[in-house]
Each structure stands twice: as C-alpha cells, then as structure tokens.
Design brief:
seven-stranded mixed sheet, single chain, alpha/beta, globular, 9 helices, Rossmann fold
C-alpha cells in the first residue's frame, strides 16, 4: 500500500490504532482521522492506550465507538472531507456476529462480513470522501480462508456504481510498528500474505488514475475481461487457467466451487432483502 502525502486519510475500525500510528509517523499524510469500533475504556482494557496516546501527541483526531454501518455513531467526523478511506483486516467480532445473526434470520458469518464491507463501501463514497479528492476506498485482507471466501473483488460493490480497480500487495514492513491483533483479545496474529483492494466511483479502470500511489494496483488474470480468461478461469474461486472442458466440469462439481456457490446465493439473498436488515 502506497500513501500519497497529499491525501486526507480516514482509517476505519483500526483495532488498537497501531496502523494509524504507523501511517502517521512514517507516511505523514496531509490529514489523518483514525476511528475504532471500541469505546476508550474497552480499548484500554483490551489493547492498552500506547498507540492512542501516540496519535493524541501528534494532534491526530481519534474517534472511538465508531460503527461504520451506523451514522448515529459518527459524531465529530467531518463528512465528505477525505481523499482515501482505509479499512485494515476487517472481521466482525464473535459477539457482534452472533448479535447480527440473531436479528437477521441466522445469516452466516460469511454473509455478515460481506454486509459489513458492502456498507463500508457505500458509506465511504456517499458520506466520507470529498467530491474533489482522490475518492478511493481501500480494504486490506488476508489471502486465506475464510477471508478470500468473501469474494471481496466481485461481490462487495454489487448493486452500486462503485468500481473495483484492483489489488496491491500489502507489506507490514512499510508500516514499522504495525502488528495485527486478534479482533476479540490482546493477542498478536501471525502475518500471512495479504492484499489491499481498491475501489473508485470516478474511475472505471486504474489506468485512468494518474496518482502514482496506485501505479502498482493491478487486476489478477482471473478478473481480466477477455474471451480467453472468462472461459478458462473461475474468478469466484480464483482458479485457472482451466485448460479443458472436462477440467472445468470437474471444478464446477468440486466441493470448493459448490461451497462458493452457496456463499454467493446467501449473499444475493442478503442484497435482495437488505432494506429489511
């Protein structure tokens, strides 16, 4: 992930605030507002206040109790004031997943996490991003199950005018001092391969954007639109190239593909009924 120093940045759901602290210290954006889902007392009890205090010392605005899905929790946030919004390694905590599932016809955690990120994108472009700014929304996520089963690249912007631009490898080394924490408790999580995924509502393709910070954002082969790729890749499963019709049929019958189809059907049901949620 590359940060343009001229950007006004909003970070969403930044756990212990380590990412925001590293971003501010080492990339020095023009402005940073950091938000976390927990209130200040929960933050102190769960992770401590080290990074919160570092941000305070640099006069960085930090908003606690911030739920990206609930506008009523956004007090103190200057709306339509940002170039870029970043959500690092999102994952609903177990208690939140249970709470939502109980109120939403026992939706799967896959669907609920997709719903969180769908609402994040919708709210980012509707409320957070400046009309005259870069207008980019970023999600960084691990490239392992269950996260890659969310079909981040193709499903989250469904029923919107938001365009998926591509991905960029995320390196923790670019943010010294940033370590991933468990969403529910004070434990560090082992680093695995991760990507930062980019969306825009003013660019159809990353090649239209002249900002060098997105120069390395690319589409993987399985998402490139051509007769060859569409017939030889299963983009949903990130599988391919598939060389024969027999292999393609075998993949479609596989447990992996059938599971992803089930997730997609659940997601489509949520989208069709989201007004009721």
């Amino acid at each position: 992930m590359k940060i343009n120093p001229s950007w006004r940045v909003l970070t969403v759901g930044d756990g212990d605030l380590a990412f925001s602290a590293a971003l501010l210290a080492h990339h020095k954006p023009r402005h940073l507002t950091a938000t976390i889902y927990d209130d200040l007392t929960t933050l102190e009890n769960k992770y401590g206040l080290k990074h919160y205090q570092r941000l305070q010392q640099r006069s960085c605005q930090v908003l606690t109790g911030f739920d990206v899905t609930k506008p009523s929790s956004w007090q103190g946030l200057n709306l339509t004031d940002f170039d870029v919004v970043i959500f690092q390694f999102p994952l609903l905590p177990n208690d939140k997943t249970k709470q939502l599932a109980n109120g939403q016809q026992q939706q799967s955690s896959n669907t609920l996490n997709r719903a969180l990120l769908h609402q994040y994108l919708v709210h980012a472009f509707k409320y957070f991003l400046s009309a005259n700014g870069a207008r980019l929304a970023i999600i960084t996520s691990k490239d392992v199950k269950p996260y890659r089963q969310w079909n981040i690249e193709q499903s989250l912007n469904a029923s919107t005018e938001i365009n998926y631009l591509g991905q960029q490898t995320f390196s923790f080394a670019d943010f010294p001092g940033y370590q991933l924490r468990n969403v529910d408790r004070d434990k560090f999580v082992k680093h695995t391969e991760a990507f930062s995924y980019y969306w825009s509502d003013i660019y159809d393709d990353v090649s239209q954007c002249d900002d060098q910070s997105v120069a390395n954002v690319t589409l993987p082969n399985y998402l490139k639109k051509s007769a060859t790729t569409e017939s030889s890749f299963c983009a949903m499963c990130r599988v391919g190239p598939i060389l024969t019709q027999q292999d393609l049929a075998a993949h479609h019958a596989s447990k992996r593909h059938q599971q992803m189809l089930n997730f997609e059907q659940q997601w489509q049901f949520w989208l069709n009924n989201k007004a009721a949620h």
